[in-house]
């Protein structure tokens, strides 16, 4: 083994001086110098001289590389199979093919001005039609059934105030006009059961006392009868509204009517009953009837009956009957 390695090293040292000697001999050749000198005579000759010189140098370098490879490889092959394998893989390896590049379609399109396929235009989607919210069921209006208890001022004229009050609001329904001409409060009280309670109304309107004053009944008697009517109706669950009596065309009645109306208001307050003063809109500044509101100086005209209905409605509407 020692002898083989020494032989290999000697061969490598000999290969390099041999290659240098060949190169020097080629460049020292007289023919090369003379040929170069002959060709250097003019511009064309100088160009030819440069070209030939470059070709010659290339041939020399190629020959030198081939000789050095063979010499080294031969020595290595003769000395060791492993060295030959190393030299073979180092010099005789076939270069790998260059990687194949896949062209980018977008770049090619730009390079060759090929128009790209247009993106599809999105088709607008129809907006869903909102489903309307179900309508809330409206509760039916409550209808308040009422009875009007009184005398001729409640019964007359042909279209009296209870009928007109019924027409003002659909929630109010007249079920009984219990006005009887000539009645005093005692008679109204006596027929309360048959003319009022029997109809089971929700609301009761009471107007009485005009005939009592004309017939000489005391204020205390009138108030006592009205109190009994109200208390009985309330005991049956009926909502009661109390009315004052209207003015009179005779000036001598002004003070007596005014005093009774004050007592009626006090009665209503004591029983927590809402009182409607119908006297004020019908009376003049002197306290007597305005002529347009009465048909005979005592009873209501059609206009007077409408004023009474409107006045009552304005008083009871805020409390919801």
What does this structure look like?
The protein has 321 residues and is α/β, with parallel strands linked by helices. It folds into two domains: 2-89, no CATH class; 144-319, 3-Layer(aba) Sandwich (Rossmann fold), CATH 3.40.50.1110. The protein has helices spanning 2-27, 30-39, 43-79, 81-91, 105-111, 152-155, 161-168, 185-190, 192-195, 210-214, 219-235, 254-270, 279-282, 302-316; strands at 144-150, 172-179, 203-206, 239-243, 274-276. The protein has a five-stranded parallel sheet, with helices on both faces. α12 links the parallel β4 and β5 (274-276). α1 runs antiparallel to α3 (43-79) and α11 packs parallel to α12.
Structure at a glance:
This protein has 14 helices and 5 strands. The longest helix is centred in the first third of the chain and has 37 residues, at 43-79.
